[in-house]
Amino acid sequence: MIFRLKRWMPLVAVMCVAGIVSCNTSPKEKQDTPTSGVIRISADETFAPIIQQEIDVFESTYPDAGIVPEYVSEVEAITMLIRDSVRLAVTTRSLTKEEEAALNSKKLFPKTVKIATDGIALIINKQNPDSLIRVSDIRKILTGEITDWNQIYPKSNLGKIQLVFDNANSSTVRFAIDSICQGKPLSPDLRAQKSNSGVIDYVAQDQNAIGVIGASWIGNKSDTTNLSFSDKITVMNVTADDVATLANSYKPYQAYLAMGTYPLTRNVYIIVTDPRSGLPTGFTTFVSSDKGQRIILKAGMVPATQAIRIVNVRDEL
């Protein structure tokens, strides 16, 4: 018995060593491709419903692909991209020169792709009879120069204006500061509801409220033509400052966004840092494709790479 043990000991030792080597050797990690793998992305919370639809269709088309979205403020979405926590971000602005330089220094050369044109909608309570407003009056409300409804509409019986946003770091707030207020600070009385749906709920309950929100959140989901808005609130008609009469005012319908007659519009971008041209690039290509752009069209925004059909309708003010 002792002899047999000694005789087989070298073989047993070799087998043990081989087992140890095998156990400690991990298989090579699978690299993602344009249609497979798993990635995290960041997206402005304003576009969560649209991006989620894009992800759902993309994953059903390519079962080997998995996309995990982080719906955050625009500031957070870009910060995650700069830190290389994600390789794709959905925003309403391109990168600054400093941000591009920071990514280039990491050999993460960013590419910016326009995917849509969106509108900023102004919403009020359904009991508020005054739904026409000029951009200059919006500016004065945002900066605190106008605080009461009767300063705009002398016959109004409403009181102090309650200004409501989604998030203090959102793209909507940045648009209000940069494009409407022209760099002037916002009134300290503004309220942040943390989400676009929260803005809608707040305005629906408060007669004095005016909400500033992404237009893609106010569509009537049962209307496939995108020619009506949510029945929970009233969408205001907005007049540009260089237009003589309030009668020439517009709501954020797709046609008016496309023609540029609605004065509060912005672009939507995908910013991607993907040196290997893997899944982030594949998803960007999909969103820019005919199928991806149709999702944007149905959501009420204007596709960047697809023509839209403009329909004549009567808009009751």
Characterization of the model:
The protein is of the alpha/beta class and 317 residues long. It has two domains: 37-117 and 266-303, D-Maltodextrin-Binding Protein, domain 2 (3-Layer(aba) Sandwich), CATH 3.40.190.10; 118-265, 3-Layer(aba) Sandwich (D-Maltodextrin-Binding Protein, domain 2), CATH 3.40.190. It has ten helices and twelve strands. The protein has helices at residues 2-24, 48-61, 74-82, 97-105, 135-143, 171-180, 196-205, 254-259, 279-288, 290-298, and strands at residues 37-44, 65-72, 88-91, 111-124, 132-134, 162-165, 191-192, 209-214, 234-235, 237-239, 265-272, 302-303. Strands 1, 2, 3, 4, 6, 7, 8, 9, 11 and 12 form a ten-stranded mixed β-sheet that branches. Strand 6, helix 6 and strand 7 (191-192) form a beta-alpha-beta unit. The longest helix has 23 residues, at 2-24.
In CATH terms, the superfamily of the largest domain is Periplasmic binding protein-like II
Order of helices and strands: HEHEHEHEEHEHEHEEEHEHHE
Count of the domains = 2
**Average residue pLDDT:** 84
Please give the structural blueprint.
Layout: H1 2-24, E1 37-44, H2 48-61, E2 65-72, H3 74-82, E3 88-91, H4 97-105, E4 111-124, E5 132-134, H5 135-143, E6 162-165, H6 171-180, E7 191-192, H7 196-205, E8 209-214, E9 234-235, E10 237-239, H8 254-259, E11 265-272, H9 279-288, H10 290-298, E12 302-303
Parallel strand pairs: 1-2, 1-3, 5-10, 6-7, 6-8
Antiparallel strand pairs: 3-11, 4-8, 4-9, 4-11, 4-12
